[in-house]
Design brief:
The structure holds two protein chains of two kinds. Chain A has strands at about 5, 10-15, 20-25, 30-35, 45-50, 55, 65-70, 75-80, 85-95, 110, 115. Chain A is mainly beta. The N and C termini of chain B lie far apart (about 40 Å). Classes of the chains: A mainly beta, B mainly beta. The interface of A and B includes residues 44 and 101 of A.
């Protein structure tokens, strides 16, 4: 099992360009997430998908769109990249997204995509 | 906005020393997780604590969840160079698995 895979690993964009970050998991997980990581700010949730066919905004959704293509794949799109979107982007998945659970499911992270917007 | 404050942000110690990392919030969480991240990789879960006052041990690592479920600590005994990395705490609510991450503690253990 590859776990969570992300492509590309590195990308340089010019301001205004668009791109899609791809994420796939082979663990048959229901829930998937996109985070961005900036120095000194930990991980911030951009969007998440509780299950196939549903997506919801996280903490910092502005400037991004997502698509849950199927159970395995969850893509993140930057329609018009800005320098403020320079960051490391992580995709993660978890088995379930249980609203009633008192515990958190383990989230499994991909290796990240390093994006530089000039 | 719910915040998780980690301290210290940076820690550089010699092999064999002990250390404690703190994770504090004004909010109550249903559970608290600790992740470790190595350069160029994604975070990996170390532990989940769910009960106020709970203590979990993983070899030389001891995790504690505060009685009021607002804070947590990670204590490492006899640190080794292999412990080097970024340690992240993450608080969870019963809100569909969404996590609130602290800003991280960068640990460097020198041989």
């Amino acid at each position: 099992n590859a776990g969570v895979t992300q492509t590309p690993k590195f990308q340089v964009l010019k301001t205004g360009q668009s791109m899609t970050l791809q994420c796939a998991q082979d663990m048959n997980h229901n829930s998937m997430y996109w985070y961005r990581q900036d120095p000194g700010m930990g991980l911030r949730l951009i969007y998440y998908s509780a299950s196939e066919g549903t997506t919801d905004k996280g903490e910092v959704p502005n400037g991004y769109n997502v698509s849950r293509l199927n159970k395995r794949e969850f893509s993140l799109r930057l329609e018009s990249a800005a320098p403020s979107q320079t960051s490391v982007y992580f995709c993660a998945s978890s088995r379930v997204l249980n609203l009633l659970a008192e515990y958190q499911e383990t989230q499994y992270f991909g290796p990240g995509t390093r994006l530089l917007v000039l | 906005t719910q915040l998780l404050e980690q301290s210290p942000q940076f820690l550089s110690i010699q092999e064999g020393e002990n250390l404690t990392v703190y994770c504090n919030s004004s909010s109550v969480f249903s559970s608290l997780q600790w992740y470790r991240q190595e350069p160029g990789e994604g975070p990996v879960l170390l532990v989940t604590v769910v009960t106020g006052g709970e203590v979990k041990k993983l070899k030389r690592l001891t995790f504690q969840f505060g009685d009021a479920r607002k804070d947590s600590s990670l204590h490492i005994t006899a640190a080794q160079p292999g412990d080097t990395g970024l340690y992240l705490c993450a608080g969870g609510h019963n809100q569909g698995g969404k996590l609130i991450f602290g800003q991280g503690t960068e640990l460097s253990v020198k041989p």
